[in-house]
Amino acid sequence: MYQRTFRLDIEKTLRALYVVGTVLKVNLNRSAPPSSTYFSVKCSPNVQYRITPPPAKSGPIPTPFNGNTVLLLTMDTASEVENDSKLSVMYYGKKTEVLGKAVVHLTAFEISLDVDADRDGQVERNNPNKGSWMWGPNGHGAILLVNCDSEHTFQKSLDSEHAEVTRVSDLKDMSPMVLRTSGPAKLPEGYKLTMHISQGDAECVRVFRSTAGMHQTLTENLFYKSFVKDYPLVVGGEDLSKEVPCLWGNAEMNFYVEGLRFPDKDFEGLISINLSMLEPSSQGFPETPIFTDRVVFRVAPWIMTPNTLDPVEVFVCSTTDNDQFLKRMRRLVEKSGCKLKICPEDMNRGDRWMQDEIEFGYIDSPHQRFPVVLDSPRDGDLQDFPYDVLLGQDFGYVTRTAYGKEVSSLDSFGNLEVSPPVTVNGKNYPLGRIIIGVAFPTAIKGRNMTKVVQDFLWAQKVQEPIALFSDWLLVGHVDEFMTFVPAPDKKGFRLLLASPDASYKLFRGLQNDGHGQAKMFDGLGAEEITVDEILSDEKLKAENNYVQSCIDWNRDVLKRELGLDDDDIIDLPILFHVMENRAVAYYPDMVNMIVLGKNLGIPKPFGPKVDGRCALEAEMTSLMGGLGLSCTYIDDFASYHKLLGEVHCGSNVRREPFSFKWWNLEM
Ligand SMILES: *[C@@H]1O[C@H](CO)[C@@H](O)[C@H](O)[C@H]1NC(C)=O
Ligand SMILES: *[C@@H]1O[C@H](CO)[C@@H](O)[C@H](O)[C@H]1NC(C)=O
Ligand SMILES: *[C@@H]1O[C@H](CO)[C@@H](O)[C@H](O)[C@H]1NC(C)=O
């Protein structure tokens, strides 16, 4: 409970502004006339007090002083008018002669800065937990979104870049906060209420005040300037503290709180907003705070969506050479019941790697939720697409820039994935875990994902990342050797891993069954090669042994960090070969697939044909069929595979958010 020390004066009548719910602590000794021995207290009926140490029940009247005698004073309800309550203290000498009298005029106010601390979408009255933040279903604390979408579609920019409210629709991206007051119609002369935030928080938050109801009601068609005027900035940016003009009596004043920054290495995500009552001092001295109320917000993290969530929109690029690919993708997307968005050539400028430039995620709060695209520092020719096309009303944008640092292929977001929900040694990850690829910790000159992006991912906290080893690949992306597909049993998914061993086993089986002369890349002209030729290539075998050991290293990490058994993993027959000391897929890399519910869009492997049927497709279809998944093989050979990417690299999927609410995580 908020306690405030108050002093008495026997020379003049004082006034005290009391805030309901607090305690006024009056030290009686301190202001007593010298040689006072006894005292007595009188109060108006609505004032309660307690004396400590408590005098003996049957003690003398008036009460003798006992060391540091303190009066603890409270009032239950707000005053109707100023000075409607009174406290008086009489001081007596040894012979109970009167030595002096201190009188205080009391005025009680109710003041509460309120937020949605119980996370039900409503701003409740004076939640006792509003000043702190706790994770979990029994936790508490309000939530703030980074206002990273753009209400304007023409000359757009992030709403958070403007220190003003330019559209009423923007208010729903902010957290409501209400100042509730009751008491006399105005504050006693000289008192004022101020809102204040710390310097650090001022870069992360803005608070706007609504003047609606104070003089006029708003209509949607008021022009631009009106909004700026009707929602003045209270604190944020340069403004750390500002007086809040108040309607008193029984009043509510609405505020809108805007988040400006995602959690990051230097920002935990917690923000406090304080409201203080200032009391005037004598002429020439600054006011002193006599009461502070405080609310705490946590900025919502950016959350990624795994393959097990339902697809909403699929994004691909149109290029001069990928008509057939687009046609097949369109059929698959239609079959899966979602939308296909094609990024035209004038926007992609020939950059077809839709997976690599962006990652879709979302932000969520009890009052609002929207998708947010994370733009990679890769900045290929697709670099304008996320900002110019995706950013919009209720579609947010965030990026991290590696100023002055070299950006490598590992910064592409084919190297950023997320697992389905898992439980690891009793610890729940109901939003899954982020997966990135880096160099071996022992590598001398390894490529890594740039630090600013890694820092951002770790700081979001709710999908604690796992770093895999992907630098052994020429392109270096985790999606070249792993993916997740939904499954009806076990943990609700399977981890699919590329496996040269599985591939050699399948090829040897074909040879044993007399299909050694079956040709890979049938119909692709110069590429054709027989099963016998592949199996007798010693160099290829050595390369694939190395690749298998790299994948096995990652397999062990994934098993450990995701709590998986071997039964949760399916090995897919895929061969690699080595170029410039690093691996690339030898034939279209089937694990680099697009997952749309139960429909998989898989790079057509052009494997050896047995009885007119591709043996690799047959194996894949049978493995996935066991999980109730349907495989569509998409020919990406010329337009993607030959350029060192596949279906997954060339597409991206925006998915439904989790139904699990991130603030219910137990941390
Ligand atoms: C309330 O009491 C204080 C102290 O006696 C006095 O200065 C002030 O003028 C009073 N206000 C009203 C409105 O009576
Ligand atoms: C807000 O109030 C809390 C608790 O009363 C205090 O610790 C903090 O320093 C205050 N912050 C600012 C910026 O006034
Ligand atoms: C690469 O990133 C990983 C994961 O954060 C880190 O452990 C490692 O030290 C980094 N390596 C280099 C060479 O920066």
UniProtKB/TrEMBL annotation:
Locations listed in the record: Cytoplasm
One GO MF term attached to the UniProt entry: protein-arginine deiminase activity
List the catalytic residues.
D356, H477, D479, C649
| Family, per entry | Belongs to the protein arginine deiminase family.
Q: What is its EC number?
A: 3.5.3.15
* Sequence ranges assigned to domain Protein-arginine deiminase (PAD) N-terminal in this UniProt record: 3-107
Task: Write down the InterPro entries for this protein, in alphabetical order.
Answer: Cupredoxin, PAD, PAD_C, PAD_central_sf, PAD_N, PAD_N_sf, Prot_Arg_deaminase_cen_dom
The record ties this protein, via CDD domains, to:
PAD_N
The top EC class is: hydrolase
Q: From the UniProt record, list the reaction(s) this protein catalyses.
A: L-arginyl-[protein] + H2O = L-citrullyl-[protein] + NH4(+)
Which GO CC terms are listed, alphabetically? cytoplasm; nucleus
Pfam families membership: PAD, PAD_M, PAD_N
- The protein's name is Protein-arginine deiminase
Domain (Protein-arginine deiminase (PAD) central): give its ranges: 110-279
Q: What does this protein do?
A: Catalyzes the deimination of arginine residues of proteins.
Q: Which cofactor does it need?
A: Ca(2+)
Q: What is its main location?
A: cytoplasm
Domain Protein-arginine deiminase C-terminal positions: 290-664
Keyword annotations for this protein, in alphabetical order, are:
Calcium, Cytoplasm, Hydrolase
Name the species this protein comes from. Answer: Salvelinus namaycush (Lake trout)
